[in-house]
């Protein structure tokens, strides 16, 4: 071809190695999943060559007739999937989606109220090391020490005290459902916009397995690569395209409907050209999610998470809040005398990937942590069911209990590798 060169073995050998790692190991990182062959094919397509600043039908570049249809398909499918009136499928990631929303709706120095990072929140909800904590004035709500649960009355009290311009709900490591109605009452009382970031449970929400944020939250953002099982990316949605009750203005000083404001927050606000190859992959994933197979999948994700939690509890592990409603759980390892770092490093040697995670009221640093986060989205895609979850916990427990014994860890690794041979991932 016109761009042919010798095979870049330096890169492709590494990709082959990573494929092996993903194939042989148990993937329990709550934010990860395996996309389908078709999602991968769309993402690795010629669409990566195309510039398409703007929106379908309103571009700043010629030759967009085809990508216009691709992007419109992604928009139409995601609107059907979540039952929403409006969506922008261009954000390059979840962080970008949140940045676009905040740029569109807030001014520097405005107050925001988010879920504490150290209790399970996300960096983009006001953390000091993130743009959201640098540009805006953050305050936080968290979980109760005794229960590990959010006390909704206390969040309302915090909102009354802080009077933020935006309340953000959603998390990276909260295993329980959200009371969006209570948060909306608080938002209305103090004149705040309510943003739900459903990055983690969006797939379960799409299929009605968890409370819906759309009737209560002004704006909803999500990543597309977690339970939603699409390519890495972000998405902004509006349950209904309401008409800007706070009189927020576009950069040109116009008061426009919320959809127009958010579109401008993405482009030109925080991004240039959209990644149409990724948008094509999003369209494929949304198409898959509209099908029955995906409905069965998310039900199994939830059942598998419950089976994991049950077996961890049987084996004396301390799960924050005592269980899970969604696809993930946070385990406090202090009662087992272990740190998150030690657990992560031990399990990786057994080809089991999880991530260390701060637990609420953690006394250790984010590099060490007292906990681990575990999710069922990827192993469910792999085809594993409840009985397999019991075995997973057994293997994890064996490795953690004998973390200093290299031969036992290596025996766990062999069991994992042999087991997963029966669950092929991608064709070679
Ligand atoms: N929001 C939440 C709640 C998340 O959990 C994540 C990802 O971990 C993000 C946003 C950021 O997504 P990304 O990594 O695609 O920027």
UniProtKB/TrEMBL annotation:
Location within or outside the cell: Cytoplasm
Reactions this protein catalyses: (6R)-5,10-methylene-5,6,7,8-tetrahydrofolate + glycine + H2O = (6S)-5,6,7,8-tetrahydrofolate + L-serine
Residues the record marks as site: Plays an important role in substrate specificity: 225
Residue numbers binding (6S)-5,6,7,8-tetrahydrofolate: 117, 121-123, 365-367
Enzyme class: transferase
Amino-acid biosynthesis as UniProt keyword: yes
N6-(pyridoxal phosphate)lysine, modified sites: 226
EC code: 2.1.2.1
Keywords per UniProt: Amino-acid biosynthesis, Cytoplasm, One-carbon metabolism, Pyridoxal phosphate, Transferase
This protein's pathway: One-carbon metabolism; tetrahydrofolate interconversion; Amino-acid biosynthesis; glycine biosynthesis; glycine from L-serine: step 1/1
Record text on subunit structure and interactions: Homodimer.
Protein name: Serine hydroxymethyltransferase
The species this protein was found in: Hymenobacter ginsengisoli
Source taxonomy: Bacteria, Pseudomonadati, Bacteroidota, Cytophagia, Cytophagales
Gene: glyA
